[in-house]
Amino acid sequence: MTGQALVAAVDIGGTKIAGALVGAEDGELYHRVERPTRAKESGKVVRDALAEVVEALAGTPEWAGVELLGVGSAGPVDTVRGTVSPVNIPGWRDFPVVREVRELAGGRPVVLTGDGVAMTAAEHWLGAARGFDNALCMVVSTGVGGGLVLGGALHPGPTGNAGHIGHISVDLDGAPCACGGRGCLEGLASGTAIAGHALAAGWRPAGGAGGRADAAAVAAAARAGDPLALAAFARAGQALAAGIAAAATLVELEVVVIGGGVAQAGELLFGPLRERLGEYAALSYVRGLRVRPAELATDAGLVGAASAALRATARAGEGA
Ligand SMILES: [Zn+2]
Description:
A five-stranded mixed beta sheet has the order 3-2-1-4-7, with helices on both faces. It has 320 residues and is of the alpha/beta class. The protein has helices at 43-58, 97-104, 115-126, 186-189, 191-200, 215-223, 227-251, 267-280, 300-318; strands at 6-12, 16-23, 29-36, 69-73, 77-78, 83-84, 110-114, 135-140, 144-150, 153-154, 255-259, 290-293. Helices cover 37% and strands 19% of the residues. Helix 5 (191-200) packs across helix 6, helix 5 (191-200) crosses helix 7 and helix 6 packs across helix 7. Strand 11, helix 8 and strand 12 (290-293) form a beta-alpha-beta unit. The model has no long low-confidence stretch (mean pLDDT 95). It folds into two domains: 6-115 and 299-319, 2-Layer Sandwich (Nucleotidyltransferase, domain 5); 128-293, Nucleotidyltransferase, domain 5, CATH 3.30.420.40. The chain is globular, with a radius of gyration of 20 Å. Zinc ion is lined by residues 167, 177, 179, 181, 184, 186.
């Protein structure tokens, strides 16, 4: 089917666990499989879903030639210990995902990557950050996450969590955050925050009390000109502008790529963000910062897990 080397990739999220064999040269996906995470059930049930995905990959004709697995996971992750404690999977706390997958995969090496860093690897390899040596890639959806490319290399940090921009503060005396901090970007710019802000301002979803009151519904109302819905997106855009400016000023970014469900709102979010960015990113070296929508859609997690695994092993090979 393909002449190139294949890397097995697994992407663990709160809703589904996906897997595929990924072309090491072009990022094409083969034998994509998916199982519901069943995150509300026990850790063992989630582990069984993971096992089904890895076993499906192990049953493909190309498996014998696979020498490496990349696992991307919702965080927090600990890439030193090989464990994950995904916020949305309560049954997994310090779950030894690397050991489990290695056993399921006949002892093959496994590289663990957080989902924000994986998305960044994917956009840097094949998407909107391609060709840039200094990039921040973000996911804005139920939460806000991200990852960094610095000096041309993926920068996961010591335990794999660098770039988690959702939990930097953009509001000194802001609301407490589940992370323990306050005024976090996630609390102002996530889909949950956008819907919450609109509701608090008096916006009501179409269809009355039974109507959907999420960020997509607020986006639909904003497109129809509802001022309260527009204000909710403007506030999220402003918060993103402040957070992005802080990151860009600190490490001299060239491009910021934004994906995730809330980014699907397009100009409703990107418009106010770009408009406000100059207020916060004022120094000469960040004034030219580019802000772009992500280019890879739903399978960025799989492509990124494979890419990060390839990069990690290449680094090891250089002895760096
Ligand atoms: Zn926080």
